[in-house]
Amino acid sequence: MTARWLLLTVLCTTALSxxxxxxxxxxxxxxxxxxxxxxxxxxxxxxxxxxxxACHHNGGSAPFDLxxxxxxxxxxxxxxxxxxxxxxxxxxxxxxxxxxAGNRRLPDTDIAVIKSWVQAGTPEGTGRAPAAPVYNSAWQxxxxxxxxxxxxxxxVPASGTDLYINVILPSNLTHQRWVRAMEIKPGDAQxxxxxxxxxxxxxxxxxQHPNDWQYGIPGMDIMVDSGDDFDPDSHFLFWKPDSTxxxxxxxxxWRLDPGDDLILNLHLKPTGKPETISARIALYFTDKxxxxxxxxxxxxxxxxxxxPVGDPNFIVEDTLTLPVAVEVLGVYPHAHYLGxxxxxxxxxxxxxxxxxxxxxxxxxxxxxxxRLAKPLPLPAGTVLHMxxxxxxxxxxxxxxxxxxIRVKAxxxxxxxxxxxxxxxxxxxxxxxxxxxxxxLERAWxxxxxxxxPGDSIALYNMAAxxxxxxxxxxxxxxxxxxxAQRPTDVRTMTSLGAAMAAAGDWQSAQQQFRAAIAQDPTxxxxxxxxxxxxxxxxxxxxxxxxxxxxxxxxxxxxxxxDAQSQRLLALVYADEGELPKTVEHLxxxxxxxxxxxEPHRALAQVYAQMGRQTxxxxxxxxxxxxxxxxxxDWSDLGVLQAQLGxxxxxxxxxxxxxxxxxxxxxxxxxxxxx
Amino acid sequence: xxxxxxxxxxxxxxxxxxxxxTYGRHLDGRPVTALAPPGTKVVVLxxxxxxxxxxNRTLPEMLRVRDEFRTRGVAFHFVYPNTTETxxxxxxxxxxxxxxxxxxxxxxxxxxxxxxxxVTPQAAILIPQGSRWAVAYAGRIDDRYIRLGLxxxxxxxxxxxxxxxxxxxxxxxxxxxxxxxxxxIINPRAPLMHTASSGSTGGAQP
Lengths: 674, 206
What we know:
The structure holds 2 protein chains of 2 kinds. By secondary structure, chain A is an alpha+beta fold. Chain A contains 20 helices and 24 strands. In chain A, the strands form 7 sheets. In chain A, strands 2, 5, 10, 11 and 14 form a 5-stranded antiparallel β-sheet that branches. A 5-stranded antiparallel β-sheet of chain A has the order 7-4-12-6-9. In chain A, strands 15-24-18-21 form a 4-stranded antiparallel β-sheet, with helices on one face. In chain A, helix 10 packs parallel to helix 12 (524-536) and helix 13 packs antiparallel against helix 14. Chain B is α/β, with parallel strands linked by helices. Chain B has a single domain, classed as Glutaredoxin. In chain B, 29% of the residues lie in helices and 20% in strands. Chain B has helices at 2-17, 53-69, 87-96, 110-115, 159-168, and strands spanning 42-47, 74-80, 103-105, 119-120, 122-129, 132-139, 145-147, 150-151, 183-184. In chain B, strands 3-2-1-5-6 form a 5-stranded mixed β-sheet. In chain B, strands 4-9 form a two-stranded antiparallel ribbon. In chain B, strand 7 (145-147) and strand 8 (150-151) form a beta hairpin. Chain B is globular. The A-B interface holds A 15-19, 21, 23, 63-64, 74-75, 77-78, 80-82, 84-85, 87-88, 118-119, 158-162, 190, 269-273, 337, 363, 395, 397-400, 402, 413 and B 51-53, 55-61, 84, 96-98, 146-154, 156, 183-184, 186, 193-194, 197-202, 206.
């Protein structure tokens, strides 16, 4: 039943940087002799090829090519500037405060070498020139399993401030897949500055914008409805200009279900002429489901963001105590244009400190996800810390307001945010113990409520946690509290009904669902939940079957691809004895769930009831093809074979069933009757 | 006779190169002998490059100012000072950014030398002074870019527009603020960039 989860999905993309980027002189450690022998061929090309040309190549995301001497010479002055200031290569974290994979910070000696080379007049040198790396526009991992494309090209005006647009790409899957790798091709990489991919498991953003979602929805940050199941966001799906394919560890693919949307949150930078963007996302699947389940955890205090005009150092802090041991896999700090100094660290129960990240000069334009070079283990009881500072003065060149104004939290780029996201992998739970992510989710939500007792998202998720853990009375109490704040919120009304049903008070649940439907007849979850409840109680409420049929027929009329509604309607027709209609909807269910043996199993049973043994046999054969290790299915196949007179095949099937499960009495009895 | 021809050829080249009345070349190769017809109050030279991202991003502001003043006695030219530019690439650039046809190639650096421009994008605003043009303003077009890697979400000061407005009103022009930010001009007559360059690691002012 419904127990929806609401998770803030954080995104961002953005902006430009704050003043005072490393103006300190870089120490020159070169001897006069070393300076004399610095040439493109001998010294500079290897540095450029290692650190620059991943973006700076013809067709790359950077605005110019640096793969040849002629090009490097043309841009030498800029190379000197941007390496001295450490604007390039883009890398915000301060050294010594966390070890990250793909560290792009240029060594001081390389910066000194580039300076000497430019000051010497950019000599090419003699001798063998190193070969420039070769780049191409093909997908890095070969032909993808699935390519998602934007439903319509996005127009970017010639001028103006940066744009933040959310583009919805429906996955259109027919069955569940596990994604082992993803690559984004943003179209024109000189227009797209950053991108984030967010999974919308309930089409929630599309439903909020039914008439124009194809054309992009403005906003730096968005919130999506995470759906019925507790499976919190788990992966950073982030793109920046030098990104190639994003390959996950073999144990941690991410789940993609039929109906899921991918939302591409784009930071776009006008180039001076009108542009169009047509981004594509390539997905690579694996047959091996996740065996380890990371989770994204958030520290934040947006409620504290109320930054006075002229404050050069406004501080926002948060702490979160880990209820379980985890490994930190990655960090993603996020603020908007006023962010100045962003710091995160962990305080172990022993009092020791482990730095997570320090960004001394925040620049949203160069924001990134930072993956740790190796997982950082943190025991239960560790306190995570976040401390951000903000500059709301006119001296902050990034300040979007001239003159500065008071700024609070919000999703627009001119608002602010104070978020520190961590990707953590909880230590594996012992068999029979709860999913440790539930404890992390509870700690996170309790932390939110500590700061903002009326936080409706946190309250909602706490109630969902209570439902998941069987604390239905507590869940009901929270839902009622939320409804006191927002009496017409159909989602909460429906969730309250689900909690009532889970507690056994199904008649009150029916009334609650009916009230939700009266509030919003298009809210499919309430309609489905009421139909499901009706179907469960036809013994005591025979008239409920008629209501269930009507409700499900209505859902399918507007959502013919809703597999669960097709399944439930088939069961309702079976209860009514309408076997041809049962077959019709089981077949529809089967077409929507190609790898699922369950619709075939149901079809086999219905065909058998209808006396259509040959078709029943065909369906049961498909069942054992899809689920070859199910002993009871082999036994059922044997029965159908025997009914059709093939005793030899039946015997093999019963023996196979007994081989798989020697305790299966039905198979033994069937075998003895042959 | 042979000796005399060589001398004559030498003299011809010498005349062209020292001519104070040549301001680069049109795209068809003809020399630009006048920046504006007599009576023009102000000439605005925008130094741009077809391959410079900051120059390109500033073009909408340049075009806005041009469209505001072009009918008010102000002449505008888009100067491509880099010796690496080709007429074909410039024509493509003019079309892509809807600039029009007010382009001057300056491979010999005549306008670079006149204005001391060193970066694209940059504005040089000239006023007549007898039979010559004098530089009344040379510097940033607006204050969006502070140095490489540091830019405002949007410009708060529109220097080129302000300078033209002041000149048309007969007021003195405010001196340029901050170092132009962008791409070094590739031209033998451009000032050297190695110590105080475009974005400037030391001299930028917001």
